[in-house]
Write the structure tokens for this entry.
Amino acid sequence: ATGPGESAAYRLRNIIAPGFSCIMHVHSAVVEVSFEELVGLMDKKTGKRMVDKQGKTIKPRCAKEKEVVFAKLQLSSPLCIESFDQFPQLGRFTLRDEGKTIAVGIILKTSNQLSHQVN
């Protein structure tokens, strides 16, 4: 799978908000990536998405240090990746900014998987 719109879950080292750009390292590739949307938070105790009292997923405005978030990412160029559950070796990544690792994570869905869900 290639292209924009990956969903990911990872641990953060900085405060991150939509529009934030950094460098993604996935397998042997390096590509610039920007945060399109933060779509949810993970409850560390249960390992599931956090929901409010009405059962709606909590969408954070920004992600703080040591939070685990779900996000849509936009790649600057096409890249061959797969979701972690289908191909673990191509489904792990690291995000770096100013020479420091700011996050590590896994790819939950690719843009191809997202477009198949809509149709």
The beta strands are 6-12, 21-26, 29-41, 68-75, 92-97, 100-109.
